[in-house]
Amino acid sequence: MTSILSSGIVEVAVCLAFIYLLLSLLCSVVNEWIAGIMGSRAYNLERGIRSLFTHGKLNNTTSLSDALYAHGLIQSLYSRGFWDKVFLRRGGPSYIPPSLFSTTLLNLLAPGASATADPVGTLRTAIANLPASAGKEALSALANQGQTKLEDIKESLEDWYNDGMDRVAGWYKRRTTLVLFVLGMLVAIVTNSDSFLVGRTLWNNPALRQATITAADQYVQTHKPPDSADKTADAQQVKSTLNDLNSQLQTLQLPVGWPAAAGGQYSILKDVGGAVRTLLGKSSPQPTYDRSFPIDTRLAWFRIMGWGFTAAALSLGAPFWFDLLNKFMLVRSAVKPDEKDDDKK
């Protein structure tokens, strides 16, 4: 009996997962490059810290969040980069360790408290003397839980900070999903990656399907899982990823990309112009090359739906597709002996 994992449907799914992985890697690198330019991680961290203090003030002129960012321990975590200077922003760290956050905050609230006879009492008094605010109420609640040691209050502050950072991570993840969808749509259009067209071609071409599965198997065996928290992307890495993607697609000869005429004389603007006329219900010249934008209005919208499906898949991120592809390949390799035995019967 032939295993379900050797069926065409599952093989097409494996191939699509591999294609989505390659395209997702490009989207992820571009997203991190943009995030680095815009300082998105640092912005979200500062936004999260400000939400913790809820406009609380250290004194009548300085907010707790501003005082925290002005402290030497926090400033030592970063230096203003090129893009900070270009956009005239002060810059900031993209990550603050919980222990450093609590140490800095305690030093701001009650400097030298640990050297006093009653450090806990000194800290509570300092918090009680803060200007009235929701931030003061939060700090007071954290410091008045029956702790007898300063270390216990420090641990409470770290737990509070970690809970807040979980929310920040949620904000960033939702924003990243939206950005990846937009980038995914751009990548789908630029590379003409129509999921429906690709799936149909793979279904009708077993040789191409098998070649793609072999390439996917080699990829998961020779590459590490992509890091969703990679913050080092730059223009050079974007170019390298784009070259790798182009190499993979050209090697497999998948139905991805815009058509090229003999000698490479083809204008994508001409094809896009025809697409616009088609969607507006106007007559358009018959496409000359394979994978050109359809002139039939129904098929044209179907192509756009295929791009949208690709964009939605890419918004899930490269780590998701790598993990799913790896699981597919592990299960598939486990059933290969059974498949060979069945073939011999």
List keywords for this structure.
mainly alpha; elongated; 345 residues; 0% strand; 2 domains; disordered C terminus
Question: What can you tell me about this protein's structure?
Answer:
The chain is an all-alpha fold. The protein folds into two domains: 4-38 and 174-344, no CATH class; 40-171, no CATH class. The chain is 68% helix and 0% strand. It is built from 15 helices and no strands. The chain is elongated. Residues 262-266 and 339-345 have low confidence and may be disordered.
Helical content (DSSP H or I, runs of 4+): 55-70%
Which structural class matches the secondary elements? mainly alpha
Tally of alpha and pi helices:
15
Q: What is the straight-line distance between the termini?
A: 9 Å
Approximate strand percentage: under 5%
**Secondary-structure element pattern, one letter each:** HHHHHHHHHHHHHHH
Q: Give the overall silhouette.
A: elongated
Question: How many discrete domains?
Answer: 2
Taking all residues together, what is the mean pLDDT? 81
Strand segment count: 0
Low-pLDDT windows of residues: 262-266, 339-345
The description of the largest β-sheet is: none
Q: Rg from C-alpha positions?
A: 28 Å
